[in-house]
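hey team, just a heads up i'm posting the complex here instead of the shared drive bc the drive is being weird again. everything in one block, sequence lines first with there labels, then the predicted structure for the whole assembly after. its two chains so it's a bit long, scroll down
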Amino acid sequence: AQKVTQTQTSISVMEKTTVTMDCVYETQDSSYFLFWYKQTASGEIVFLIRQDSYKKENATVGHYSLNFQKPKSSIGLIITATQIEDSAVYFCAMREGTGGADRLTFGKGTQLIIQP
Amino acid sequence: DAGVTQTPRHEVAEKGQTIILKCEPVSGHNDLFWYRQTKIQGLELLSYFRSKSLMEDGGAFKDRFKAEMLNSSFSTLKIQPTEPKDSAVYLCASSRGLGANTGQLYFGEGSKLTVL
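-- predicted structure starts here --
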């Protein structure tokens, strides 16, 4: 069975710095997809970035990037030049297989606090 | 396009009552998911549909939780009878599905249920 673990429950950093959030996963599938989602204080959950397991290059979108270490089953989220509005809860998620529905398993989330 | 719409946003129920939560997915999306979010358990998948067909009916949740998708643009989650431990935020999400393999879920704002 698939499992996603985020060990950091809360992180606090100063504005304009770089932060890394950790995530490790377990899967028996040879092909899978990894995601990060953000939940704001209002409760809204939005998709941020995705990594396909067969791709060696780390995905990058805006000031979000991933550190994909496949041998370690690890997918870290890196946020550079953090802003106050990056304060939120960040969820790591995994989708197994290449067919079927977008059935995601989520980690329990890491709360990020950006201090001015 | 409108996003995922959930109603009601807040619901207070007495123990033993029946409650029905409603969801309208993004127009044209084929997959629909119901998640429950609590601080302790995080995001737990309750049920999901692919092109209106129920693909997963909630495992441990199936005895009192019943999700239905009456048409491609409307789904309900019935909890009967409610128990205090059901207090949580219930999130509906949709995705394009049908091989799009994006893993990009669009979430509604959630229905916060409090069972007294």
